[in-house]
Write a structure and sequence with these properties.
Elements lengths: L1 H7 L4 E5 L7 H15 L8 E5 L8 H15 L15 H12 L3 H15 L3 H13 L3 E4 L4 E4 L1 H5 L7 H9 L4 H11 L4 E3 H6 L11 H10 L3 E4 L2 E4 L2 H9 L3 H16 L13 H4 L18 H15 L7 H20 L3 H15 L9 H17 L3 H12 L8 H13 L3 H14 L10 H16 L3 H6 L6 H19 L5 H15 L8 E4 L2 E4 L1
Parallel strand pairs: 1-2
Antiparallel strand pairs: 3-4, 5-7, 6-7, 8-9
Length: 538
């Protein structure tokens, strides 16, 4: 609607998205829906140009479905779809490039062109880098006697560079100063890009290059190794980042991640009250939150917590032998997972929860890690539920159920019953749910005969009619977590009952009403029960 509104004002929009091969299904679905909706607006669609870029050797089934949806729109004459293939440079392309730059004929540059094409694998960036390196070390130099650029073809042919393009980049990077290499190593620890504000924060980091990052960045930009895009510092190519990162010795790399993580955590409250965070206050049902605690800044505290935790995770639990440290970092992952869930980024949340569990290792479900373990597993199960990962929900929920006391397993039981319903096992879902309710001393008749159903409805109606609206509203102030989890569980059972028209449905609905009246009313209490022709609404 926003795009259509802008386009309707005779404004033109050019939208470009890179690396579509890494987009998840939900993102591709959103893009497709937006484009298709605009295509249905005859005038507005003329003012939009969308460019999507991807690597053709990493195409997923989801990306193919995305392409199919666009082709379908084109078939309806609602849009023009053009496919542009950017292949590697051919030998002829490289030859023409060298001819143009050196102002020489094809005959003179053909031998050089063959070597450059072979060493660069036709990649434009690497071809330019190789030629620059040959000029910088005077392998290619201007000859006053010949009045043109000249080189020793035998020396060029036996050039001592590795066969892979990545090794060529590494050999070029070794020519950088110690400070520039250290700068690149720290940047590579954050991936392909890093916020400029974050590097500024790291200027006082003990391992920061002498003179700070800014003095190194200018030269690195001039050499085409990195680019500065607004507030981001980006490697010119992901292979450069990969080779810089992989070039750090394993132990040194782990230590660098650890040092960065601990330094950044000192600017946050990661170690304050992390053990008292509650998963059930973070995510309601599927973990939705208004995110009111976020700060309006380029790097807010919560984001900094996530970045610091990710650095520790990159070091890996095996790097830390101290049990207290591992428990500490497990609690960091709990808080980072909570923050990601608040932002509805459940995939990231699950990533943190899984790391938190791995940091506990063999110390799972011990007396001093019991609460932390429970919260991590509950968070992992909730995030998996939001991602429709029924098998993962079942795994995490069963781990909880098998290791905690019954009352602490109610949320896990709710998630397990919900996963059974989502996977179509409604009868199993109902049977398990009723068994849990009976363990809670909630009486559900074993045989839901018509007589039993009518009697239960009459009793429930009688109990409900004894309360007025203000009394029911007052119940909202005394709902504890156990009550809420029981009502969630009953609600999950109701869905399966409704799905297969189970005779237990009215009994379960009455259970919601009666339990809510006895223990408190909340949003999970909403239920509709029929008694003769009368309706009970809570």
């Amino acid at each position: 609607k926003l795009l259509c509104s802008v386009l309707s004002q005779e404004r033109k929009i050019f939208m470009a998205l890179d690396d579509l091969q890494w987009a998840d299904p939900s993102t591709l679905g959103l893009i497709s829906e937006v484009l298709i909706s605009i295509c249905h607006c005859p005038e507005e669609r003329k003012r939009l140009v969308f460019v999507g870029m991807y690597r053709d050797n990493e195409v997923s089934d989801d990306l193919i479905s995305f392409f199919t949806s666009l082709v379908t729109v084109e078939g309806g004459n609602s849009a023009y779809v053009t496919n542009v293939e950017l292949s590697s440079l051919s030998l002829d392309d490289v030859t023409k490039m060298i001819m143009s730059e050196l102002r020489l004929t094809r005959r003179l540059v053909s031998g050089l062109a063959r070597v450059v094409h072979k060493r660069s694998h036709g990649h434009a960036l690497f071809a330019v880098q190789l030629l620059n390196s040959l000029v910088s070390d005077s392998t290619i130099a201007y000859s006053p006697m010949l009045h043109r650029f000249h080189w020793d073809q035998n020396k060029i042919s036996t050039l001592k560079t590795a066969d892979s393009v990545a090794s060529l980049i590494v050999s070029n990077l070794t020519l950088l100063s110690i400070e520039e290499i250290q700068c690149l190593r720290i940047i590579s620890c954050f991936g392909i890009q890093v916020q400029a504000d974050l590097l500024e924060l790291l200027d006082v980091f003990k391992l920061a290059p002498q003179g700070g990052f800014e003095s190194c960045l200018r030269n690195l930009v001039d050499q085409g190794i990195i680019e500065i895009d607004s507030t981001l510092i980006v490697f010119a190519h992901d292979l450069i980042q990969e080779q810089v990162y992989e070039g750090i010795p394993a132990k040194e790399r782990q230590q660098l991640h650890c040092d960065i993580g601990i330094f950044l955590s000192s600017r946050t409250s990661l170690d304050v009250n992390s053990a008292n965070e509650r998963i059930d206050t973070v995510m309601n049902q599927l973990g939705l939150s208004d995110g009111s605690d976020s700060e309006d800044s380029s790097i807010d505290t919560s984001s900094l917590m996530s970045i610091a935790t990710s650095q520790i995770n990159n070091a890996g639990p095996e790097f830390f032998s101290d049990r207290m440290q591992r428990t500490r970092f497990a609690s960091w992952n709990l808080r980072a997972g909570k923050y990601a869930a608040e932002k509805s980024s459940f995939r990231a949340a699950l990533h943190y929860y899984k790391h938190g569990i791995s940091f506990l290792g063999g110390d799972l479900w011990l007396e001093d890690t019991y609460d932390l373990c429970l919260k991590l597993y509950e968070g992992a199960a909730l995030s998996s539920s939001a991602l429709w990962g029924e098998s993962r929900v079942s795994m995490y929920a069963n781990d909880i159920i098998n290791n905690v006391i019954f009352e602490d397993s109610l949320l896990a039981e709710y998630l397990l019953i919900g996963s059974l319903h989502a996977s179509g096992q409604c009868k199993h879902s109902i049977a398990r749910g009723l068994a849990v309710l009976r363990r809670l001393k909630i009486d559900i008749p074993i045989t839901p005969s018509p007589e039993v159903v009518m009697l239960t409805l009459e009793q429930t109606e009688k109990e409900a009619s004894a309360y007025n609206f203000s009394q029911i509203s007052d119940c909202q102030r005394r709902v504890d977590s156990k009550t809420r989890n029981v009502l969630k569980l009953v609600d999950a059972i109701s869905k399966s009952c409704y799905q297969i028209a189970s005779p237990f449905l009215p009994l379960v609905a009455c259970t919601t009403v009666r339990y809510s009246l006895q223990n408190g009313v909340c949003e999970e209490s909403i239920s509709v029960s029929l008694s003769n022709q009368n309706k009970i609404f809570l």
